[in-house]
# Entry
Amino acid sequence: MNGQPQRAVTIANDPTMVAMIQDATHRVILMAPAVTDEVAVALAERWQTLGGNAVTVIVDVSPEVFRLGFGDFTALQLLEKTAREMGVTLDRQPGIRIGLLIVDEQTLIYSPTSRLIEAGPKQPDTPNAICLGIPPADVERELGAGPQGIKGRLLGLDKAETAAITKVEKELKDCPPQEFNVARLVNVFNAYFEFVELTLAGIFIERRTVSIPTDLLLALETATQRKIHTTYKLIEADDALSSKALMDDRNRLVKKHLRVIPGFGMAILRTGKQKFMEEFAILENGVKAFKEKVSKSLKEKLKERREALQAQLLPVVSKQVPQRWTESAFYKEGTEEDIKALLEQELIEVFGTAEQLVRDMLAGVVFKAVTYESLRNQEFMKRAKEAFPELQTLYEEDQAVKGRTPVARGATPAAA
# Structure
């Protein structure tokens, strides 16, 4: 056979399979998730030449095989139409993920290529198939090509009915496959950098304030009002519980490992991700230690700040008791002790507890892949190249996967 691959460990792609099929003299059996238009055209031609019973085609009729890029939906339509015209059936094997092509007495067993991930083999040193001679008897029998004929068949027992193909067509229209070149491009592009969200949550104790009910401040004199506002800081900015040291550590980590893509966020080279995570673990431990320190110290500090505020408020609140207090069963006779107790209880509720304040304190990091939409955004690509100038060469070196979409559309890094 002129088109038959000569090596035992070889490649199976559209050209090699088409060549094998075109050389067929008396039979073709193909089983695969799906086939491309090129292979389908070759099959249809040999089917018409050799006759209906000389060709057997078994495929997986499901939208997923086309979303993964194992073949073309138009190829499925062509094969079903050809089988119907030849008075036979196109057969179905749900979930099939291996490829088998038997042409006369030659057998090609191959790994089908998902074009969503890669372009497929082209060189002999990237094999995905084994070329054998006469197919094993058990394989022929299970495909219905053995001595027992159709009675011994175990695969492809279901007919690929027109209704099932129509259903697949509708599902693909509702949720169409990605452009396969774009999906592969994203994999290459993402292999080098990704977005990072680095957060320190709940650590800014010096920024925490409490809201003081306005009716507790009504009787304050102007001079005192300037000192006490409706919001009251829990600690002073220069307090030992300030988060400044943690923020300095966080900023050092950002400066050392991350790049800012203006308008889009921070990103990191994947080659530096492991080192970043090692140093992030140090920051994370720092936050845990800070949390323990705050938890131990804040209880007393809250008490001090609360009692200081209580001392300032008690004289004026005693002169103008909030109406909601006078209606309370705890107000009793309205003595100074009653007012003090009510004020203390209210401030305890307003300030909260140390445990509540440190509960959500943590360091977090989230990595996010670069999206296809970003790759199509020329402004993003321009700024990304400015942030990672060394990646431009890497793109050029990794352009083994060529897309079908014209470069002029600006969808690839090389075009941006």
In short: The two ends are 46 Å apart (CA to CA).
